[in-house]
Amino acid sequence: MRARIHVTLKKSVLDPQGKAVQQALSVLGFREVRDVRVGKYIELELEEGDKLKAEERLREMSERLLANLVIEEYALEMDEEE
Amino acid sequence: MKFGVVVFPGSNCDHDCYHVLKHVLGQETEFVWHKDTGVEKFDCLVLPGGFSYGDYLRTGAIARFSPVMEAVVRHAEKGKLVIGICNGFQILLEAGLLPGAMLRNDSLHFVCKYVRVRVENSDTPFTGGVSRGEVLKIPVAHGEGNYYADARTLEDLNREKRVLLRYCDGKGRVTPEANPNGSCENIAGICSQERNVFGLMPHPERCSEKELGSEDGLKIFKSIIG
After folding, report:
1. Å from B103 to nearest chain A CA?
2. Which CATH entry fits the domain spanning A2-79: 3.40.50.2000, 3.30.1280.10, 1.10.443.10, 3.40.50.300?
3. Structural domains for chain B
4. pLDDT truncated to tens, each residue of chain B (226 aa)?
5. B82: part of which helix (H) or strand (E)?
6. How far, in Å, CA of B76 to CA of A61, rounded?
7. Interface predicted TM-score (ipTM)
8. DSSP character string of B195-222
9. Fewer CB within a 10 Å sphere, N or C end of chain B?
10. Residues of B in contact with A40 (CB under 8 A)
């Protein structure tokens, strides 16, 4: 199974990197951009066929290591192999 | 006192800490490799600055799972002293020994310069030799030193007098201009509830000899030695 995890800063936490990217886009003329949040994208390949079990393990990985829940949140996506 | 300086892959202030403790202050000091777990003989463990594991994922995120960290947690639970400097502070935060987290500096720049910090509480093993309100001249060198904690954690830290250092100007005024990285409430260093674990972004080991422009770092190490 393939999984994708997106880790981003929580809405309540100011993202200085996102702010800088937004300003740069604005200088380039992309003035419609209201807000930018920069995060991390992590791809994993799991030896697990059961989606529920995989999800449980992925949440554990995310909460113990991949995201720091003090400042970040995460979103999971999973693909089953054909 | 017996000091153990922990060495992670990517630590780079380990030798500076060792030098100051052993050669400037004459203390018994040994390096502790991050795979070692025997730390019983030490009174104080130092987690030094650097870029452990290349800062991959987040600063300190991988180092906190090094074998030595379980020993550091046990050492702290016994009430023995732990001081984490810069990357060491980041590791203590990731390990949950201190509350909060580090964000990228608000300027997005790596900041490497002398700053001033005001000592907020002198009733701890790390600041006992300094007066409250005293201003120390200490260098910082970090890209991720923007201390963040939620409102409730900040309230607890303030109420329990666990903020030990705040960035300030030369006169001891805590101002936004004196904040080098955007840290909440200009926080530069905090301690645990039991006051035996201390994390700080400034580098006292880089200002413990006259030749280096300041000896204020010695005030922290001498407080520890007592």
Report:
1. 8
2. 3.30.1280.10
3. 2-225 (3.40.50.880)
4. 999 999 999 999 999 999 999 999 999 999 999 999 999 999 999 999 999 999 999 999 999 999 999 999 999 999 999 999 999 999 999 999 999 999 999 999 999 999 999 999 999 999 999 999 999 999 999 999 999 999 999 999 999 999 999 999 999 999 999 999 999 999 999 999 999 999 999 999 999 999 999 999 999 999 999 9
5. strand B81-85
6. 26
7. 0.84
8. S-EEEESS-GGGSSBGGGTB-THHHHHH
9. C
10. 57
User: Quick one: CA dihedral B225, B34, B202, B137, positive or negative?
Assistant: positive
Assess whether B205 carries a catalytic annotation.
Answer: yes
Which of B99, B106, B150 is closest, CB to CB, to A16? Answer: B106
Report residue B72 as tokens: 């550091």
* Residue whose token pair is 């880790």: A7
